[in-house]
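With this grant's support, we have settled on a layout for protein records. One resulting record is reproduced below.
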Amino acid sequence: MTAASTDLSIMVRRCLLTFKPFRIFVVGIGFFSLCFLMTSLGGQFSAKRPGDSPFTVRSEVLGGQESRGVLRKISDMLEVIMKRMDALSKLGNTTDTHRLDELSSALDRIQPMGLVERIQAIAQNMSDMAVRVEQLLQRSMASNRVRDGILAQCEIPKDPHYPDCPSKMDWMRARWTSDPCYAFYGVDGSDCSFLVYLSEVEWFCPPLAWRNQTAVPTLKPPPKRQAVFQSDTGTLLERVGTGKESLSFMKRRIRRLASQWASAARRLDDKLSGRWREQKRILVHVGFLTEESGDVFSPKVLKGGPLGEMVQWADILTALHVLGHDLKISVSLKELHGFLGVPPGRGSCPLTGPLPFDLIYTDYHGLQQMKQHMGLSLRKHKCHIRVIDTFGTEPAYNHEEYATLHGYRTNWGYWNLHSQQYMTMFPHTPDNSFMGFVAEELNETERLNIRRNKVNNMAVVYGKEASMWKCQKGKEDFLAILHRYMEIHGTVYYETQRPPEVPAFVKNHGLLPQQELQQLLRKAKLFIGFGFPYEGPAPLEAIANGCIFLQPKFNPPRSSLNHEFFRGKPTSREVSSQHPYAEQYIGRPHVITIDFNNSEEFEATIREIMEINVEPFLPYEYTCEGMLERVHAYIQNQDFCSPEAPFPPVNSSQTWLGGSRSPLIPLPNSTILAWASNTSYYTPWPPLSALRLLASLQGQSCVKACQSAGLICEPALYRFINIKEAFSALNFQCEGLESEMNHLFPAFLVEHAECGLQQDPLLFSCAGSSSKFQRLCPCRDYRIGQVALCRDCL
């Protein structure tokens, strides 16, 4: 072996041994390309002797002074490069590493040629690279001199406005490698990179004076655009996607109701008189349909599984589209990541940019997925989220600290959202917003056909799964009574043989497509429930097709305290029947609620139903126009991101506009109070003109207190009655006035004549009662057929 080839081998090994790991990654590929080329020419070399290094080049191959000179030149070039790289390896500026890629790529570009010519080409490339390294070294040394002055400024700042900065720095030092997203944002293990990340990507440390703050431009929000009603659902159907039976079901529903949505849009447009509406950027993430959540619904669509959630989501998508908003739809984590700008990693870091949406509609599954993948951004942007929540979430369960301390913690609550960010299927929880769904409306021809074709002695049982026929005790007894008067039909799913749970005298049609089910309901006189499922859309569809809905009364009412189905749900609401909305808001003659265990009452009711003739009925709030009206009002008026003016502190004297001692005045001939129109400059939604203040009875919730006065409890107006003047206006004599976190406050403690104000606005709650308290309740009026909106709310 010649001295030159020995030096070459030594140079290579020195480079490989002395470079830091990240330099080896960048430069090592180039050196290995050289070494591989030298050894890959083995077909032209003689056999390797035992003990030769795999990187040793046999001197006999090159032969002659020319070969040794070339090897010496390569050795010299490697020495120069090694020195330059050794200097570069001591620099901490990882932003320059991408330039080193040029070094390795140059080695890889060598084309096959004669042996000596190849090595000469390598030498020439090495010479060129040496020049480039020299230039890179000069630039890096210049930037390093600047950074040397900065390093002294990378001490942890002691700023009382950023108390968590030191602890976050300690965390980053210990855990920054736990998620690749930190490296994605430029964290490299140095304190400077930690501070830059914690001050510019997160917000736990103060801005750094030595950073060029203008380097990151402040993005202006996009210009506001006017929303225009859309009658064509073609683009919506494309966005819904394919690949799941649940999506196919939703698309069929969108197509079937498209003409009704278009007609409703025209009517609402006329009602709003061309009023300017802001177009919102909206993401709809249907979490329960993602594979990551299990998607238990899609496989059951064709087997009688629950369809209520998919009915509602299809209608939500259509309403948002028809209202003219910019809509994106996600049914997978991959789509969610792409729409939100989630950085690569495990979800510990914030989003890569500003939230590209004004509103995000999702469910509890989607909310959990966003928590796992949005990092701190969820806390920052959660005011934009709306959670579709079938059974409702009460404030005591929503407030994480309060729920944990007072026994309200469940698997579904504790998100610390504004209670009205939860949106329900029925208006059973006034603390939440009522989203709803739609049922098909009949035209005059269809109504006429129903009158002609109704079969007076025909009943259809509510329940598509055989398990639903097991839930009602004494089912055989009342079905036998019903069979004496009516022909009973079922729509229970089965594959090969008749489900044994269905009695032989029941004519079972199996699972029917929606249109065939509609035809069956239009012929039937009675639609009867067994007590389960709770609060589904089917009873409203039956009533809309001219059926009478007969359902069991629950005594005692069912709730999370006494019934397995509701246990763990974030609500203490008591369910008095299978469908409380139908019982309370529709009632007789369309809805009859009785004790099914009382056979005499049951039989008498069947005879009564045989004598009743009813017209098809559909509440306005469950029509396409009603849902469009409601969703429009929410989108244009609900704002949970803008800070609210604080409610007056305890024991403070308040000077009201107009010089009055109280902002509340009694209504004529009533104990109910209203807001004086000249006492405030606030312009909330709902407006203060809708406010009606009253005191509950002891042990009565504000939900019940407002209902007893023909009103609706309105949590958005709580902050205006959370004042000491409200107690005096209601003639409460306060021996003491305190403020605390209590979901029953503001309230009057009867035994001690103490008045309590609410300390945390997240705990303003219409739900909840105690025999010790009389609660102060902010009620409001409502539009006929639209309980979600007050008379002046549109």
About this structure: The chain is about 40% helix and 10% strand. The two ends are 93 Å apart (CA to CA). Confidence is low (pLDDT under 50) at residues 1-68, 87-113, 135-150, 649-653. Residues 529 and 551 are 5 Å apart (CA to CA).
